[in-house]
Amino acid sequence: MIAVDAQPFAFPFDPARAALVIIDMQRDFIEPGGFGEALGNDVRRLEAIVPACQRVLGAWRARGGLVVHTRESHASDLSDCPPAKRLRGQPALRIGDRGPMGRILVRGEPGNAIIPELAPRAGEVVLDKPGKGAFHATSLDSRLRERDIAQLVFMGVTTEVCVQTTMREANDRGYEGLLLEDCTESYFPPFKAATLEMVRAQGAIVGWTATSGALLEALRTVAHG
Ligand code: C5J
Questions:
Q1: Which positions, given as ranges, span the membrane (predicted)?
Q2: In the beta sheet, which residues pair with residue 7?
Q3: Long-range CB contacts (< 8 A, 24+ apart) of 199-203?
Q4: I want to staple 68 with a disulfide (CB 3.0 to 4.6 A). Which of 50, 77, 96, 125 is the partner?
Q5: Contact (CB, 8 A) for 15 and 219
Q6: How would you classify residue 69: left for phi > 0, otherwise alpha for psi between -120 and 50, otherwise beta?
Q7: Ranges of the chain with pLDDT below 50
C-alpha cells in the first residue's frame, strides 16, 4: 500500500488491485468540429487535459495495469438509450441526430471514437455505455471483480456528468475511487470545481481527488521498489 498525496486525506493506493478508468474521451466531446462544439461549448478546455491523461496512461501501461476506456454510445436504433437522454437533451441536436461527425453518440460513428491520442491498445477493456454511469447496463462490475480490482483511478469527461456518475456508482459497489483533478474537465468551470468538492466532502463521501503528479510519483515509487 502506498500513500498518494490526495484530498481530503492520503489515498491508500494498492496498485495490484487498481484499474485506470478513462471516461468518454471521445472525438465528439473533445475535438473542434464535433458535437460538444456544435452545442456552443469551448472544447479547448477539454483538449487541454489530454497531455496529462497521456502521461498517466503511459505510466499505467508501463507497469502493466488494467486500463478501461469507456465510450458514451448507443445502438443505431437507440433501443438502449435511456428515455431522459432523448426527451430532455438539447433540442437542437439530440442523441441519434445527424451531427458534424456522424450520428450523435451512436456506436461506430466517427465522432463516437476515442481520440487518437488516447486510443485503446489490444488487451485493454473498451466499454460502450448507454448511461451516464459506466456501471449501468454494462459488464464493468463483473469484469473488474473477475480481476480482483478494488480501486479505480478516474480520468475523463465531463467531470460533473459521466465521471461523477460513474464514481458514485463505483462507490456504492464498494470500490475506492481516486479522481485526477487535472485529467478531468467540464465545459463549465464552476461545475468541475463543485464536483471535486462534492467527491471529497465529508471524509471522502464519494472518493478522493489528487493531481496526476501525485499519482505519477506513487507509480514511480512502485517501479523503484
Ligand atoms: C459525458 C455528457 N460523457 N456530459 N456526457 O459526461 O453528456
A1: none
A2: 209
A3: 199/164, 199/167, 200/7, 200/8, 201/8, 203/8, 203/9
A4: 125
A5: yes
A6: beta
A7: none
